[in-house]
TrEMBL record:
It comes from Tissierella simiarum. Zn(2+) 2 binds at D138, E173, H376. Belongs to the peptidase M20B family. Binds 2 Zn(2+) ions per subunit. Zn(2+) 1 binds at H78, D138, D195. This is Peptidase T. The active site is at D80, E172.
Length: 403
């Protein structure tokens, strides 16, 4: 079995799903376990300055093997997996996909109807789950590709390169991955997160993001005598949802279209808490969406008598603003893909990435593919060839960066 697949299987067997309800960093002990393993492997490979800090971040350096002055480049992936499902994948399936639906277990299948892109992958070797857990390709495929690329460079010293910085972050899936990243200590001129999807993805635009928390204080009395007295906070929550544009919900949007997402609602007649997230690539539309919520709350407070409070917090911003002054980073990745026979797919991320936050922290950091599909669910899978191509791309970027 290829070394990269052996690594991947070892990493996905460790449950590293993050926990947004935890106040620690990392939020779960499994991330420390994987970090410890990676520290040992990085040392065995021969990288230097290898460490896992008190917050679970793993750093390492592959030292330059050339006297030429070369920009220092970094590669970053995240240790955690999505909290949406069990993150310990100990029973992956590896097989050649011959077309049709893929039966994971008696209850779940990856179907051609739901995932029509399967027809383009016939003949590829797949790694899937058994339908009970995440696979963990997001982002253990990225970690595997980086580790594989480092081993290749060490075994092939004829490939000249400058200093290469490696970073593995905790808690990316709950939006904290860049919070305590040591940008100064990392000391790279630029970096790439290896956290994308299918082969060819190259992304330097992402959503502007905010969270919205709305609390509604109702008034509960016996329904038999409720006329002109009861104020049902659940119904007011429904009013808020119905006042938002129906065509700007996630299930109706794509490409550069932003959305409002009702993420969670808990409560009763007396008191209800509603949580939304706002996403938009355009800063002006993003600000408009936040203002829409404020106007809705003002209107309903006038109607019901100041019983609603709202809290809006920005989460991250579109990294395009920080990448565009450094488009040579994008051109380097494009050139490297083309030399490998890969067609670059430059598109906006309909989500966030550590790279967005890091770009605003002074480390320009676009995103490149891992090769995986269907992240965050039991239908996740990855063609092994795609993961190997991600490793080859890392090597090619490093090689071209030194020319």
């Amino acid at each position: 079995m290829d070394k990269i697949i052996e690594r991947f299987k070892k990493y996905i067997a460790i449950d590293t799903k993050s926990d947004e309800n935890s106040s620690t960093c990392p939020s779960t002990s499994g991330q420390l376990e994987l970090g410890d393993l990676l520290v040992e492997e990085l040392k065995e490979l021969g990288l230097e300055d290898v460490r896992q800090d008190e917050n679970g971040y793993v750093y390492a350096t592959l030292k330059s093997n050339t006297n030429k002055k070369v920009p220092t480049i970094g590669f970053i992936s995240h240790l955690d997996t999505s909290p949406d499902l069990d993150g310990k994948c100990t029973n992956p399936r590896i097989f050649i996909y011959e077309g049709g639906d893929i039966k994971l277990n008696e209850q779940y299948s990856i179907t051609e109807k739901e995932f029509p892109f399967l027809k383009d992958l016939v003949g590829k070797e797949f790694i899937t789950t058994d339908g009970t857990t995440l696979l963990g390709a997001d982002d253990k495929a990225g970690i595997s590709a980086i580790m594989d690329a480092m081993e290749y460079l060490i075994k092939h010293p004829e490939i000249k390169h400058g200093d290469i910085k490696i970073g593995f972050t905790p808690d990316e899936e709950i939006g904290r991955g860049a919070d305590l990243f040591d940008v100064k200590g990392f000391n790279a001129d630029f970096a790439y997160t290896v956290d994308g999807g299918p082969v060819g993805e190259l992304e330097y635009e992402n959503f502007n993001a905010a969270s919205v928390k709305i609390e509604i204080q109702g008034k509960n009395v016996h329904p038999g005598t409720a006329k002109n007295i009861m104020v049902n906070s659940l119904r007011i929550a429904m009013e808020i949802e119905n006042m938002l544009p129906i065509n700007e919900k996630p299930e109706y949007t794509e490409g550069y279209e932003g959305f409002y997402l009702l993420d969670e609602i808990t409560g009763n007649i007396d008191h209800t808490v509603v949580n939304y997230i706002i996403r938009d690539h355009c800063k002006e539309k993003f600000e408009r969406k936040k203002e829409d919520f404020r106007k809705i709350v003002d209107f309903l407070n006038d109607k019901y008598g100041n019983i609603i409070t709202i809290e809006i917090k920005d989460s991250y911003y579109n990294m395009r603003e920080k990448i565009e002054p450094h488009m040579e980073i994008i051109e380097l990745a494009k050139k490297s893909m083309i030399e490998l026979g890969i067609q670059p797919i430059i598109q906006p991320i309909r989500g966030g990435t550590d790279g967005a936050r890091l770009s605003y922290m002074g480390l320009p950091c676009p995103n490149i593919f891992t090769g995986g599909y269907n992240f965050h669910g039991r239908f996740e899978f990855i063609p092994t060839e795609s993961m190997k191509l991600a490793s080859e791309l890392i090597v090619k970027i490093i090689e071209n960066n030194a020319k």
